[in-house]
Amino acid sequence: MAVSAGPMVVSTLSLFVVPIAEDTGWSRTAVTAAFTSMALGQAVGTPVVGHLLDRFAFRWVVAPSWALYCACLALVTAVPRALPLFYGLFFLTGVFAGGTMIPFVKATLSWFDNRRGAAVGVTAAFAALGAATTPLLVSALLTAHGWRVTYRWLALVAFVVSLTAVFALVRVRAERALRGRLVKVVVADDRVVSLEPPGLDVRESLRDKHFWMIAVNLCATGVAVVGIQVSIVPMMLDQGVAPGRAASLLTVFGLASLLGRVVGGALLDRFHAPVVCAVVVLCPAVGVFLLHGPFASAAAGTALVGVAFGVEVDLLPFFVSRYLGMRRFGGLLGILQAAVMLTSAFGPPAVNLGRDVLGGYDAVLPWLAGLLVVCAALVLRLGPYRYPAVAGFDRVAARDELVEALRPNDSTPATRKSE
């Protein structure tokens, strides 16, 4: 998660805007549109990954996704001064980046129900940790070597860390596969036992009001928060802040996101999720009004915006599991994640276009704050959970893991694939 597309590409894009624009002669709006191209790619790739996760074993989906994502990110550095090719490579990076996050979220949720919010929060915190530390590395590399070498280093780090985690550290609970394809039922003690969890299928979910309320709320939130995040460094540079000091705000942003994900995840297990979501969404609505003050005020505003960054990483999978269930979790999360990424992609160019048309960022920010207030009001209408936590699930999961670890290989129950 710490080297996924969010921390490695999205969180550092604002640092690359000016160097790429100066090297190529493109406008800032044209450069930030690369994020739109990447998000379009993720909108294509993420539903496919989610669909595959509901049918194939974890590693069969994740390992190829990571390898191709890192390769495409490295190829961005070879692009000549041609915008279509630049956008095309970012699009492909986004397509394969679709497999860098959802599989790990699904693996985490397979082990937790009673403490699901905290588990997702801790998992997502690694992404926030990457968002907090990667800008420091990127800033140093940009100063020393330029943007092309910097992207090559990011691709190399992501490749080594990700494949180590995939093959050595991560496993999905109760996953049974035959030649890579998931087994839906097992035969144990002469009984046929279904391995499918409860929940709605994709068609049922598309007819459910909760699906659309979740989609509209988090899509609109993503437009505002990502638009602000990518524009923070250019905004500070326009105010005369030194580049190094402006870049340090991204570390503040990442640390706030880290804290918000851990604390927010824990709160999801204690309070109703829509209430937690409303509070999180209102934080950047307040923070945007602090960005044009002194540097300390801008840092505080950046922190408040950072609390909501990556809100879909925590809240989206939690909402899906509680309102739509886990039966087709991968496919549903993929569709919703794609929608969030697709709409969020228009945040950075919209904010920068507003700056060009209205004459400054200060005229755009109040509109974003108003949008966030509407989102906070909408999420409160979700109502009670359809699939609440099952008492004692986490203890049973831990016990089953211990039993499975101690089971001799020759006594494993026979399995058969469902039709």
UniProtKB/TrEMBL annotation:
Keywords: Membrane, Transmembrane, Transmembrane helix. The chain crosses the membrane at residues 31-53, 60-79, 85-105, 117-141, 153-172, 211-232, 244-264, 271-292, 298-320, 332-351, 363-380. It is found in: Cell membrane. One of its GO terms (molecular function) is transmembrane transporter activity. Pfam families: MFS_1. SUPFAM superfamilies: MFS general substrate transporter (SSF103473). It is a multi-pass membrane protein. This is Cyanate permease. It comes from Umezawaea tangerina.
